[in-house]
Amino acid sequence: MKVLVCISHVPDTTSKINFTDGDTKFDTNGVQFVINPYDEFALTRAMWFKEKQGASVTVVNVGNATTEPTLRKALAIGADDAIRVNTEATDGFFVAKQLAEVVKNGGYDLVLAGKESIDYNGGMVPAMLASILDFNFSNACVGLEIEGTTATISREIDGGKEILSASLPLVIGGQKGLVEEKDLRIPNMRGIMMARKKPLNVVEPVDFDGTTSSASFEKPAPKGACKMVDADNVDELISLLHNEAKVI
Amino acid sequence: MSVLVYAESSEGKFKKVALEATSYGKKVAEQLGTNLVVLTINADETSELNTYGAEKILSVKNDALKSLDAKVIANVIKQASEKEDASVVIIDSSANGLTVAPMVAVSLNAGFASNVVAAPSSTSPFVVKRKAFSNKAFNNTEINTTVKVVGLAKNSFGLHENASSGSTEDFSPSIIESGMTSTSIDKTVGTVTIADADIVVSAGRGLKGPENWGMIEELAEVLGAATACSKPVSDMDWRPHSEHVGQTGKPVSSNLYIAIGISGAIQHLAGINSSKVKVVINTDPEAPFFKAADYGIVGDAFEVVPKLIEKLKSFKANNA
Ligand SMILES: Cc1cc2nc3c(=O)[nH]c(=O)nc-3n(C[C@H](O)[C@H](O)[C@H](O)COP(=O)(O)OP(=O)(O)OC[C@H]3O[C@@H](n4cnc5c(N)ncnc54)[C@H](O)[C@@H]3O)c2cc1C
Fold it and tell me: For chain B, which terminal residue's Cβ has fewer other Cβ atoms within 10 angstroms, N or C?
């Protein structure tokens, strides 16, 4: 089985979000970039398929050269090789088109992605990719087993869980549950050494006109001060929520 | 030309998000000087959609669509949008909506903006404001294609009545085959889900252990609220993963979010920030949550919560 894991390169969750150039660009100054948290669950699940079922695991990112340390980290966690599509990731549809090309050229059976990336939170790439390739697709995936060419998928739905079966090829939008938090892999020294020698192939993008563009960014309006209520006076809280905030 | 809204129903009834998407669709149709068409699948009663501005309703009834395969539903939406010559297609942010919308965009070769929070600030160029960086910012996104797909964030535009006397038309699209077989569905009935809830009661590590969640559940029950928790609480298996909220868990955009024994770490706040009103109950007056909250009580949850339950019960009894 050939597994492709899509890796998004995102600001660390503690990053301060600021913009430059008249609020048109994200200010990367002082920002640490990491593997998108949702993608870590997908990558760790892929390692399980590699170790237990002999799958090969390739990681891919659509981005410029600055994302390579993130791909190297994925290699250090255990992926066999990496692909970087050498272009600016400008919009979700564009990224999905580029990934579809990688999947077609590489003949992957299973594509694992995180259900969204924590920078633009589009949540669109996995579903778009499945749609372009006409592969089966499950979002919000919290469990995945593969036997032969059949996948058993557990996914979250509004108010519960659903178990599905589908044949490969398949695209998954994953999250916690795909593996448990405590089972997430972090690179060790040996992994980091080995990662330096693993192939990281740079490929050029295919032409596709952007369907959306970013006009500008804004930050939320600053919040007023918190109104404090005495712990012995919960009646006042109830009255504020009823009369002032009008939420109960 | 038209604006098309897909109004999702569950067990034949519309969810609030479907009516919100309809309200939003009406606004966009007015801005574009065109009509609002609303597509429904297996809904019992559609007149509610007229209340929120639907000028035409396409009603699909087909048991094959009871399965939730997004690919099949996306294809029905595509057929409806082509039939109605829709220039904007609007889909809500329910779990299904989030999966269906990107597929609709691909099939219509349309630009897609998700998590949109406001009516277009301009229609030519077509610019919408969407959430970005896990609620730490917004992005004004221009959609450049002829047909545009908009995913509306929950509780962002609100419900706006706008009665119209629309017609309802039976619509029988062709149904493509699904490659997925659903083998079981396990839904908790009778409890409010985080996605649907107007009020969410959430608790953190300050509760000390899973045995103390009785009062959290009781408070939620009095308020008709969903229960949620911080990440470490679900990592330690005190509560199920489905309750984990925050940047790497479920997003919350309820009217009221009550945080009990939660410190207010940046990753937690990122996920719940778009809730309208936030209340924090915490023993530590320096807890960062107080900077993000609207109302706060410095106090011990084990004393404050039982009092709050008791007082809310009498408040509810008097205001019923
Ligand atoms: C990559 C990454 C992603 C993350 N994503 C998320 C996420 O999505 N969601 C999330 O929640 N966290 C997330 N976190 C974790 C986050 O950083 C915090 O560790 C977590 O939110 C803390 O949970 P807590 O507030 O329950 O616990 P603590 O930080 O331990 O806070 C407990 C609070 O309870 C108070 N308390 C103690 N006793 C009482 C009492 N008797 N009555 C009232 N108050 C009391 C304390 O004063 C304290 O403020 C993430 C972290 C990382 C690194």
Answer: C
Nearest CA to ligand 1 atom 16: B265
Look up the pTM and report it. Answer: 0.94
Q: Is A208 on the interface with B (CB under 8 A)?
A: no
Task: Classify residue A233: in a domain, yes or no.
Answer: no
Q: Which residues have CB under 8 Å from B110's CB, separation 6+? A: A211, B89, B104, B143, B145, B146, B147, B148, B149
Element (H, E) at A169: none
Check CB contact under 8 Å for B71 and A166.
no
**Any ligand 1 atom below 6 A from CB of B251:** no
A contacts of B266 (beta carbons < 8 Å): 13-14
Looking at domain B2-170, its CATH class is alpha beta
What ipTM does the predicted assembly reach?
0.95
Dihedral (Cα; B184, B185, B188, B190), 10-degree rounding: -120
| CATH number of the domain residue A208 falls in | 3.40.50.620
Where do the structural domains in chain B lie, given as residue ranges? 2-170, 199-318
Q: Atom 48, ligand 1: which residue's CA is nearest?
A: B263
Q: Indicate whether A246 belongs to any domain.
A: no
User: Across the interface, which of B106, B241, B244 has its CB nearest the CB of A128?
Assistant: B106
* Parent domain of A151: 2-220
- Is the torsion defined by CA of A145, A150, A156, A161 positive or negative? negative
What CATH number has the domain spanning B199-318?
Answer: 3.40.50.1220
Instruction: Assess whether the C-beta atom of B301 lies below 6 angstroms from ligand 1.
Output: yes
The total domain count for chain A is: 1
**Mind listing the pLDDT tens digit of every residue in chain A (248 residues)?**
999 999 999 999 999 999 999 999 999 999 999 999 999 999 999 999 999 999 999 999 999 999 999 999 999 999 999 999 999 998 999 999 999 999 999 999 999 999 999 988 889 999 999 999 999 999 999 999 999 999 999 999 888 899 999 999 999 999 999 999 899 999 999 999 999 999 999 999 999 998 999 999 999 988 889 999 999 999 999 999 999 999 99
Q: Answer yes or no: same fold for B2-170 and B199-318.
A: yes
